[in-house]
Design a protein that fits this description.
The protein is an alpha/beta fold. The protein contains 11 helices and 9 strands. A 5-stranded mixed sheet has the order 5-7-6-8-9, sandwiched between helices. The protein is globular, with a radius of gyration of 24 Å.
């Protein structure tokens, strides 16, 4: 009897193992190293767009996570190994991810490297100086792409039209590297294109009521966002987060805030600085937070949409409150 009980128990255990193995075999695993294609993305917005195009195939490796700055990030050993093993690497370009310039040359020598700022048809805007800006949106110099890339604002994904062109470029690059899955990449490209177009319409409607409300930013990272939605940014505390502005610039910006009654000043979580709090002290301007990289958002295909919506909410919340208090 004990022997029969022992045998029946093992029969049950093996039956459960068999069921588990069958169930596991029915689930398609994500793309791994043995599939031959290893994809790496530099920063969260790029990773999100690449992950969207790769949906159903696999997930790219993200290099810069969390609150690190693309201007001075130190890669971990695991990230360096992922870069060394990469088949395809997507980044914006050396004007943004300065930390990747040397590693791409030494570690990713066999990879196809796609600089998305060089995507055909991308609308490029010049990087602005720190301090006070005038009220016009300057597109000057955006015609000669080769000469202007070094002077271009690299935060190109903040214009949804640019993001749509980047999605198309990502699909082309993945199809070239992995032609057997071209149909999957094309279907995902079309789905993401429609989804970004819908996002663009919603953000346009949400931001319309606060277009005329003036504000300042800590770092000039939102030129594309402001240009697309007609927002009224007056200036930035600094042109580059690693450069401390001089007293003359700070005084001029504070005078601008007071003269034109800027209602909000926006910091970024990666580069929070007490300088902006000092500048707005006594001016009546409120403090808000925007983030062009979406540092607090979980990486993945939805991250781009969550980041864009979060920035629109932050702007509307602060600027609309300022309007009501007048």
């Amino acid at each position: 009897m004990c022997r029969d009980h022992f045998m029946s128990r093992w029969t049950l255990i093996w039956a459960r193992i068999f069921v588990a193995l069958v169930a596991a075999s029915m689930v398609s695993p994500p793309l791994r190293a043995d599939d031959g294609l290893r994809v790496v993305a530099s920063v969260a917005p790029v990773h999100s767009l690449v992950a969207g195009v790769m949906a159903g195939v696999g997930e790219p490796v993200l290099i810069l996570r969390g609150y690190g700055s693309p201007h001075g990030y130190q890669m971990r050993p695991s990230e360096a190994r992922a870069l060394a093993a990469a088949s395809v690497v997507f980044w914006i370009g050396e004007s943004l991810e300065t930390f990747l310039v040397k590693p791409l040359g030494t570690l990713a020598g066999d990879a196809t490297v796609i600089s998305l700022i060089e995507t055909e048809g991308l609308a490029l805007l010049p990087a602005r100086a720190g301090g006070v800006w005038d009220d016009r949106h300057d597109h000057e110099g955006a015609g000669d792409r080769a000469a202007d890339l070094a002077r271009t604002d690299p935060h190109v994904w903040l214009a949804p039209a640019n993001a749509r062109r980047m999605v198309a470029a990502i699909a082309r690059a993945l199809s070239a590297a992995d032609p057997d899955r071209t149909a999957v990449y094309a279907a995902n490209r079309d789905a993401w294109d429609a989804r970004i177009a819908d996002l663009d319409e919603r953000l346009d409607a949400a931001l319309a009521p606060v277009r005329a409300v003036p504000y300042v930013v800590f770092h000039d990272a939102f030129h594309y966002f402001e240009d697309r939605y007609g927002l009224r940014a007056l200036g930035a505390v600094t042109v580059s987060p690693d450069r401390r502005p001089g007293p003359r610039r700070l005084t001029a910006l504070r005078d601008r805030i007071q003269t034109l009654r800027a209602r909000c000043a926006f910091t970024e979580p990666q580069f929070e600085s007490p300088l902006i709090e000092t500048i707005i002290e006594g001016t009546g301007a409120a403090l808000g937070v925007v983030d062009p990289l979406g540092a607090a958002i979980a990486p993945g295909p939805n991250a781009y949409f969550e980041m864009m919506e979060a920035n629109a909410r932050a702007l509307v919340t602060c600027l609309a409150r300022a309007q009501r208090s007048e």
